[in-house]
Amino acid sequence: GAGDSARAEWWMSEMREHRVETDVVTFTAVIHAHLRVGSTAAAEKLLHQMLAKGPQPSALTYGSVIGGFAAARDAQGAEYWYLQMVRDAGKPDVPAHNSLLSAWAKCTDAIRADHWLQRMPACSLQPDETSYNTTLDAHARCTDGEGVEQQFAALRGNSKGFEAVERWPSAITYAILMRPWAYQGQSGQVERLWQEMLSIGIKPQACNMWALLQSFAEAKPPRSQAALA
Fold first, then answer.
1. In whole angstroms, what is the distance from residue 122 CA to residue 22 CA?
2. Contact 103, 79 (CB under 8 A)
3. What angle is formed at CA 159 by the lines to CA 154 and CA 161, rounded to 5 degrees?
């Protein structure tokens, strides 16, 4: 609960009172405690304090803050701290970059997600399964089944320009592709993607089964009623 982050802050104050060093690990742990309860303002305050007085934030510190802003659906905040990380550390890491992609995906801004995916090579970062799935998810949140499949084809084409991306596409990728069709009640399209997934050796997971069942639930009219008509 909210008391957890408050107690973490209190204990850090106690450390200072007793002249115990509060290093980057200590600050990062308290920042993480604030982010766990959604208090991005408190986390940001501590990060500003680190920048002003030390210790200097680590990649883990920045990554936690970027992820926290992403979870809060504050993509602009996530992007601000990502750019701050680049200025301070010189080079971001893939988890932080993926958190930024997630922030824009959760805000249904596929254009910004595309932008940051395309920026990865310039940042000397190799996109991974999460990078592609998160960007695809951004499109799935704001388009229909046909649109997200077109984006999938484009991403597969672009991925050939990088080193082989391990485990992509994956069962999660296909769950993202299935989701818009499932919400439209297009069970035939979901079944088609299921068979496609099997044909390339991907084992279905619970997320794929959910999409398949959801497509029947959303069917209009439901198949059982149509059969009785």
1. 36
2. yes
3. 115
